[in-house]
């Protein structure tokens, strides 16, 4: 399925990843025999589609089209000028297609093979094992944008909302919010060093560094919220947290199991481990009537609703649930219903922490 030019949705829609294994050692990869004769882009796509189909590689045609287009300097095969589709590739280009196709035969996700992917109109650098942004997450971003447009925080004291993203990965959510909300500022946190570095690099590439603070932080560590106090109370918290039920991890597609960081996916027994930590820290960080937007599993609206009822001390209400483009309940809007928690003396903000170096 292709939506908006660049998407390999079925490839990514499976749940998945196997703990501890990394599929990017190619020791077992046997290079295919070089193709005889000079082939055109169209012929190469047909050739590699057939090879991928035979080897059971998902999204065979889309994969070969993206690889050939990439080698020819285009984002999609459809956007290639007709002449480039029919003229022969150079020996170097043929070799490069062959090398990248070899990675695909090893089930490497196309996004990692290409080294970049689009999200909300932004081209982001992708690198294993940092989580590849999924198309449904665009629905979360769009919901936040709608709410900001309707709410008073769009015209706050400093001109726009202050947003905390928990688990920024490649920076997809934070950077697309920043690019579409020119007055906004974002605090992006992640426990993964590779994710922190990639968000930093993507922010730099997109010239959005001046409105983002990128902070290495594990939200499960006690008192972690205290590190965020210096930036002031937030208008919004947004997160696409790890939410896969632990028992589902083994069923994830090989592309996910072998290449993406399990820490980005595994949400524990009921997928709630990180979700509950985010909710528990929210009252310390959110402004009165501030909002939390979460992407979750379809089983979570009910689980999160019950959990919030059992934690009335947090003064958080599940106010709306939204479906993804497959009609599954996947996004939650949770709002503060009480005043902000008092700040314990030992947690009072100190001097403004330094920005993470670029
Ligand atoms: C599903 S990925 C989402 C990445 C990105 N926001 C996106 O939508 O493409 C979840 C992210 O949460 C991060 N994460 C997992 N556990 C965390 C924790 N305890 N504290 C902070 N970040 C965490 C992972 O490293 C990963 O980058």
TrEMBL record:
Matching Gene3D superfamilies: DNA helicase RuvA subunit, C-terminal domain (1.10.8.10), Vaccinia Virus protein VP39 (3.40.50.150)
InterPro entries xref list: DNA_methylase_N6_adenine_CS, HemK-like, N5-glutamine_MTase, PrmC_N, SAM-dependent_MTases_sf, Small_mtfrase_dom
The Methyltransferase small domain, residue ranges: 163-248
Reactions accelerated catalytically: L-glutaminyl-[peptide chain release factor] + S-adenosyl-L-methionine = N(5)-methyl-L-glutaminyl-[peptide chain release factor] + S-adenosyl-L-homocysteine + H(+)
GO molecular function, one term: peptide chain release factor N(5)-glutamine methyltransferase activity
GO cellular component: mitochondrion
Entries under SUPFAM superfamilies matching the protein: S-adenosyl-L-methionine-dependent methyltransferases (SSF53335)
Region annotation Disordered: where it falls in the sequence: 337-358
Domain named Release factor glutamine methyltransferase N-terminal: residues: 43-115
Keywords annotated in UniProt: Acetylation, Methyltransferase, S-adenosyl-L-methionine, Transferase
PROSITE patterns assigned: N6_MTASE
Listed GO biological process terms: methylation
EC number: 2.1.1.297
Superkingdom as given in the UniProt entry: Eukaryota
UniProt cross-references to NCBIfam families, sorted A to Z: hemK_fam
Name of the molecule in the record: peptide chain release factor N(5)-glutamine methyltransferase
Source species of the chain: Suricata suricatta
